[in-house]
Amino acid sequence: MLANVKTSNKKMAHIKKLLILLSIMILGVSADLSNKCCKDDAHLVMRTRRCSDGSKPFLDCNKYLYKKKRGVTTFSLDSHENLVIEENPNHSEFTIEHGSYCLDNLNDTDENVALICFDESNEPFWELRGGCAILSIIFMILVLIVYFLVPILRDLQGKCTMHAVANLTMAFAVLATVQLGRFDFPACEILGFNIYFFFLSAFAWLNVTCFHVWRNTVRPTTPSSPKYLYWISIAYGYGIPLTFLTGAIISHTVPGEHLKPGIGTNSCWLSGEKASWIYFYMPITFVLVTNIIMFCWTGTILWKTVGSNFRQSHKLKVLKTKYVIGNFVFPNRYLHIR
């Protein structure tokens, strides 16, 4: 008799546990459904940030997509249906108020993501940066006009400088467009890759310009046709950026767990510091390092060979000025895009 009572109590305890677990699951499911981004039979699509049925998510605000880091990030809902996001390694936790987020599966998988509204309080900051970019564009166009109007400036070095300035102008033009406007997929993605290409092209042509200064100083007697050198410069100045652009697009579109550029995912630029370093800052660092090497090499040769003659001294000043402008003014402009 006593054994039957104990068995009955154990069964009741198991039933209570199952009921509690079932209640928690029902509450969790109802909470997720009440905050679902898309309709019941749809899911979010990574590339478009729209629902799989073509509709927009229910969340009506400026939003960005927050992906879980596998084994690191956890989503949970508190008693007021606020979203609690916890980053395990840093033990950091922040809460998103109910109505400022929605949850859904990504690309028809079990991977949960959140769309989160962001504050527009920094809008004047982006308008200011866009205005500064437009101001830079005006002055760069004036530089190009001077080169077009003065034929003597359009030698090999001048043409390379024109290409560098033209690409920088285009980069700032697209950048200003992004900063002053609001774009969704696919326009945001297209604009982001344009910014990426034109900035890399500007840096590549800066490298070409520095190479020609180095060559005219260190190897002035090397026989080469200016036309031949110009076409080689074009192949390098546009070939290198196109190579990086092609690689970035392939990496962006091919499915997998590799590090993707993420352009057009959360913004019209590279997604995250790691992607920015791999796809943008590392190529730029290579260009700047080679420019510094050529600068030091050129400066050493000039220091050894230039005497007290006024003409030679004047030539030294011109070369130094031109080289310093090319190496330090342009990079300072570029590195303010982030």
UniProtKB/TrEMBL annotation:
GO-annotated molecular function: G protein-coupled receptor activity
UniProt keyword Ribonucleoprotein present: no
Gene Ontology biological process terms from the UniProt entry: cell surface receptor signaling pathway
GO CC aspect terms: membrane
Protein name (record): G-protein coupled receptor Mth-like
Compartment annotation: Membrane
Organism: Agrilus planipennis (Emerald ash borer)
Membrane topology: Multi-pass membrane protein
Gene3D superfamilies: Rhodopsin 7-helix transmembrane proteins
Keywords carried by this UniProt record: Membrane, Signal, Transmembrane, Transmembrane helix
Chain ranges of the G-protein coupled receptors family 2 profile domain: 135-295
Range of residues in the leader sequence: 1-31
Membrane-crossing residue ranges in chain numbering: 128-150, 162-181, 193-216, 228-250, 278-303
Main location: membrane
Pfam family, one: 7tm_2
